[in-house]
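Appendix B, Record 12. Input sequence as logged:
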Amino acid sequence: MRDVLKIPTAEILPSTRDVLVQQGLPAETAGGVIAEIADDACREMQTLIAPRGLLAEISGPTFTDIYPGRGENAARTPLADIHPRAERLALFAVTAGPAVSPRIAQLFAAHDYPLAAALDAAASLAADNAAAWIQDRFAARCAPDLGVLRYSPGYCGWHVSGQIKLFAELDPGEIGITLGESCLMDPLKSVSGVIVAGAPSIHDFICDFNFCTDCADHQCRDRIAHVLSPADKET
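Logged structural output:
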């Protein structure tokens, strides 16, 4: 199964409040010029964004070959324990499209820093929302009792160089995403990774990894809690 997907723009555009929160601003009290700039960023996104996604189901052995990458992963990682227990796996890549990053760069060059920063935040949110959208598409193809979560290189001990083998298998050039020498994607506002479907409990782990101490917000806990069944949460 390999699908190129046109992602509905309306389903991934962030709200003004989301943009403010992404920038660390008090969304409940922000008003006036600050809120207007966030509004402007959201309106620009509507004209710039061209979201697309690629989803390809793979076998367990295929991902077992992909995950070690160039041998630069952390010595212990959650995904190393999780993926062998998966019932289904899929590689994915999504992008907000090629027009967003050049516009952000143009605004910074013109010293319009407030709008540039707000648009950058809006684009990051849109890319992450696109990843969530494609995760939901895969989840809809899985048994309803499975827990389905996505994992990306660059996070939780999976070294960013893991993109190399991932791209070699997935080939997201089909939707306009390429990989640079530093393993950053172009367009920059893109996300790639693996979606793991299995018993919800396989996604739960204790945050005692070396890299967890460098994590500022532990957002993984909210994502894990979302897929755990009530019984899992009680254990």
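Residues 87 and 198 are 5 Å apart (CA to CA).
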